[in-house]
Design a protein that fits this description.
By secondary structure, the chain is of the alpha+beta class. It contains eight helices and 14 strands. The protein folds into two domains: 170 residues, no CATH class; 106 residues, C-terminal carbohydrate-binding module (Jelly Rolls), CATH 2.60.120.1380. The strands form four sheets. A five-stranded antiparallel β-sheet has the order 7-8-13-10-11, with no helix packed on it. A four-stranded antiparallel β-sheet has the order 6-14-9-12.
């Protein structure tokens, strides 16, 4: 893992009058997005594992100036008597210099910065790294919406990319919801979840139950739960300990993200209570074949 911090380069561009950010929107301009991509490429060049990556040449060609829809500007405008600057930027289109040339794949996931086509962040990443780039962004999804969708998807599980770029703006706090979201991502990225547990469904309520008495859970364990093919937006896990008390944890997906039906719930802080059983309920019905596994 490497971290690309573009602050110094963005600040230098601002001082040089190159306008890396909009005046009335928190997103970077296309020029700012290019600087972000160049910072990523510089960080990746220091990563020994990428020395053998297959690359090709990409070129970004400028197009017309485009106005970007901005809820932030519209909100700010209601408090201003004079017209705020338009959220407009030079558009770019990126293509491979040689059509069909082989190159390894990278994926960038993030927020509205990744999702805004006018900023061309995926294209600039291809140009800067020589890797073909796929992208997925969730506007206003914070640090975790897009990444949790991608890491729990079959696309990632069956064919992980050579490089995964996580776009996290300074406005998105990684600690906003404690350590549960990041622990879910860690488990989704590479945990061994081969130990299956039997789940039983209550036909009347749809609530699932599982016996945890022989699961040998520790504070480093995580449970992997698949809804069985249904798109469920929220899942609640009630861990019943040896003292008979239920301790609950929930996972909520963002309204704008793609629902994969896959969840990972860390057990840290619960193992000391000796969880004997588990109840699982969802915001909508589970499928016919839900699966529960222990990850180590």
């Amino acid at each position: 893992m490497v971290v690309a911090d573009a602050l110094v380069d963005l600040r230098a561009a601002e001082l040089a009058g190159e306008r890396p950010f909009f005046e009335a929107d928190h997103r970077p301009t296309a020029n700012g997005a290019r600087i972000l991509a160049q910072s990523v490429a510089a960080a990746l060049n220091k990563h020994a594992a990428l020395s053998g990556a297959q690359t090709t040449e990409f070129t970004s060609v400028p197009g017309d100036k485009q106005t970007v829809p901005s809820a932030m500007r519209a909100s700010l405008q209601t408090a201003c008597l004079t017209e705020l600057p338009a959220v407009a930027t030079q558009a770019f289109a990126t293509t491979a210099d040689q059509l069909g040339a082989p190159a390894d794949m990278q994926v960038v996931v993030g927020t509205e910065v990744t999702d805004t086509a006018e900023l061309n962040l995926p294209g600039f990443l291809s140009e800067a790294t020589g890797l073909r780039t796929l992208s997925y962004g969730v506007p206003m999804g914070g640090a975790f919406a897009a990444m949790s969708t991608y890491l729990t998807s079959q696309d990632f599980q069956t064919a992980p990319p050579r490089v995964l770029v996580w776009e996290v703006p300074v406005t998105a706090s990684l600690g906003q919801y404690g350590d549960q979201p990041i622990k879910e991502l860690i488990a989704a990225a590479g945990a061994n979840c081969a130990a299956a547990l039997t789940v039983r469904a209550d036909k009347a309520t749809g609530v699932l139950t599982a016996d945890l008495s022989s699961a040998q859970l520790t504070d480093r364990s995580t449970l992997s739960f698949n809804t069985g093919g249904t798109a469920v937006a929220a899942v609640r896990f009630d861990f019943v300990g040896k003292d008979g008390l239920a301790r609950s944890r929930s996972i909520y997906r963002h309204d704008g993200q793609v629902l994969t039906g896959q969840f990972y719930i860390p057990v840290g802080g619960l193992a000391e209570h000796g969880p004997k059983s588990l109840r699982i309920s969802g915001s909508s019905e589970f499928g016919a074949t839900p699966q529960l596994n222990v990850c180590f």
